[in-house]
Give the backbone structure.
Amino acid sequence: MPRTTRSAAVVAAAAVAFAAALTGTAGADATGVTAPAAQAGPQPVYWAAPPQGVTVAAPQRLLNQPVRITNDFAKRPTTQCLDVDANGGGNGTVVQVWQCNGTSQQRWYLWNNGALESYRFPGKCLDADLGGGGRNGTKVQIWDCNNSPQQSWSHPSGDRAIYNARFYSGGNIVMDRDANVVGNGARIQLWQKNFQSQQWWDVWADT
């Protein structure tokens, strides 16, 4: 059954609730989008996906600045970041972890529909491959941003997992980095939640 778009009022309310999940003391900008108050240094960011069945008709960025996403699995001696292969850029380009280096392929714009848009490749969003069906090993890639549930992600406060709306499965499926590769280039995939560090993520907004 196709997802339906509810009234503008419901969608607007969902967007406000979604934005309010961001951490920190919040302040609304001219568009009504709420973001963390300015503080020194990187600030953690959390967000919830729009309610099931609600399509955000006119998605907008939740934060003006991009975020970076770090993983705990190989945190020492260096931290690894969610990274899109800079040699690609087309649909299906690999998403991986790589030593954090401050480059554009490790920065993402967060939208109020749960999308994470690549800063390096504008118009391309973090996407769970429909062909994988949400099974263990389902590929996470970039694809043309299309406001679909497979491109809607959430990172709730108090929970270090990142969830995909299309393959949520009651919170049992999460974003995972391949634990068989410790170094740079470990692929990002979906996997059954196992509470291991390869599924622990932190999202940071630089202020």
Q: What stands out?
A: The two ends are 42 Å apart (CA to CA).
